[in-house]
Specification:
alpha/beta, Amidase signature (AS) enzymes, eleven-stranded mixed sheet, 15 helices
Length: about 475
């Protein structure tokens, strides 16, 4: 029985039936980490002893016949931009090296209530700025399907850990595609919930009007279980939606007859790799055979999502990252005066991509350029949201590729920022509109996984999970795992 390959819902059943202990499961995951982590490099920090202690506590509760939550005892990895009490949190940046938060993010609090076992903090693009996890301030992460290729970003460490068997589930964050893209590249399931569905309290901010936390899992049922655990209103986050959270597992029925699904023609235009087009066509054929009605539609302003995003997100980043000055926490490089200390600290602490985005954002917000760039980008964002609203009047959801290409080689795009930014072309508009997007494995380009993205109206994660579950049951893609 290969515990490291099994989904969380199956492991939860084995734990409750006492066929395996939480400590055995935890030790199996760390044995897997010991075997492959030097190749994958998914983690920045391991919590080995803490995890074993958490597992023993779950085993004691099971022995006492306590009623435990569905994810109790399941090993889970956390992206390193979520605060955990007493655990170093760096956002993969040298400027935060040594920062130990005194509090838990709301998502961490809720996962502790679920009695999950935390395996460690995962690698990421520095401050979540990137599409390949090559922008980490420490080292890049490799794709478990091909160690010479990227796992996507910025939640590449979380997706790679789940794909490689180094965690059963993981938490990521998504600002412009940072959960969905790594999920697609690593052949796992990744959900960016509706903006406000999951509390951002304790998430180190990149772009506050776009950031959202979500699950990365082996299959759709695990995704529903993890969303159940982390979703819900939080008064500590002023953008958190005061909406009730349904039981998302109740949506998991393999029946989608009559669902109307639109394919925006802008997402199958020039620039989409032939192999990705083929996988999307096969997915459409399968969904149609299952009874869904799939038709072409249009999002007229979605082509402007790239410039709009790369004005709005950097502008917010330039404001959010101003707090890293060497005074309060993290790295401090001394200088002859306070201004010199600021300059030296930020020069040494921030990586090239973070500096690039801070400068872009500061320029867009500067006097004389605010109206010409940032304000115009906000207006385009409104037009994009209206395009989605119009499409959802006709369709239950939309379908697109998650990425325009299969995973690319490490180093292939790192010196070409525009080529790297175009990797997110299928995911950016979803973030700008604040609607939910779910990436699921749909096929392969040779030996490399390809994902498709389901996009729904606000707070319709349940419908997306239903269609994804039905597709998953019919396609059987998630049964395949990389061989390291």
């Amino acid at each position: 029985m290969d515990l490291c390959r099994m989904p969380a819902h199956e492991l939860g059943r084995l734990l409750r039936e006492r066929k395996v202990s939480a400590l055995e499961l935890t030790d199996a995951v760390f044995s897997r980490i010991d075997a492959v982590e030097d190749k994958v490099k998914a983690y920045l920090l391991l919590l080995r002893e803490e995890a074993r202690s958490q597992a023993r506590a779950v085993d004691a509760a099971l022995a006492a016949k306590e009623e435990l939550p569905p994810l109790a005892g399941v090993p889970l990895a956390v992206k390193d931009n979520l605060c955990m009490t007493g655990v170093e949190t760096t956002c993969a940046s040298k400027i935060l090296k040594g920062f130990v938060p005194p509090y838990d993010a709301t998502v961490i609090e809720r996962l502790k209530e679920q009695r999950v076992v935390f395996t460690g903090k995962t690698n990421m693009d520095e401050f979540a700025m990137g599409s390949s996890t090559e922008n980490s301030g420490f080292y890049p992460t490799a794709n478990p399907w091909d160690l010479k290729r990227v796992p996507g970003g910025s939640s590449g460490g979380s997706a790679a850990a789940v794909a490689a068997g180094e965690a059963v589930t993981a938490i990521g964050s998504d600002t412009g595609g940072s959960i969905r893209l790594p999920a697609a590249f690593c052949g796992v399931v990744g959900l960016k919930p509706t903006y406000g569905r999951v509390s951002r309290y304790g998430l180190v901010a990149f772009a506050s009007s776009l950031d959202q936390i979500g699950p990365i899992t082996r299959d759709v049922r695990d995704c529903a279980l993890l969303l159940n655990a982390i979703a819900g209103h939080d008064p500590r986050d002023s953008t958190s939606a005061p909406q009730e959270v349904p039981d998302y597992t109740e949506f998991l029925v393999p029946e989608i007859k009559g669902f109307r699904i639109g394919i925006p023609k802008e997402y199958v235009a020039e620039g989409i790799a032939p192999a990705v087009r083929d996988v999307l066509a096969e997915a459409v054929h399968l969904l149609t055979r299952m009874g869904a009605v799939v038709e072409e539609t249009s999002l007229p302003h979605v082509s402007y999502s790239l410039p709009a995003y790369y004005l709005i997100a950097p502008a917010e980043a330039s404001s959010n990252l101003a707090r890293y000055d060497g005074v309060r926490y993290g790295l401090r490089v001394e200088g002859e005066d306070v201004v010199t200390m600021y300059k030296k600290t930020r020069s040494r602490g921030f990586g090239a991509e973070v500096k690039r985005r801070i400068m872009l954002g500061t320029y867009a917000l500067s006097a004389g350029y605010y109206d010409a760039y940032y304000l115009k980008a906000l207006k385009v964002r409104t037009l994009i949201r209206r395009d989605f609203d119009a499409a959802f009047e006709r369709f239950d959801m939309l379908l697109s590729p998650t990425s325009p290409t299969p995973p690319f080689r490490i180093g292939e795009k790192v010196d070409d920022p525009l080529a790297m930014y175009l990797t997110d072309i299928c995911t950016l508009a979803v973030s700008l509109a604040g609607v939910p997007g779910l990436s699921i494995p749909a096929g392969f380009a040779g030996h490399l996984p390809v994902g498709i993205q389901l996009i729904g109206p606000p707070f319709t994660e349940g419908k997306l999970l239903r269609v994804a579950y039905a597709f998953e049951q019919e396609a059987g893609i998630t049964a395949k795992r990389p061989v390291l």
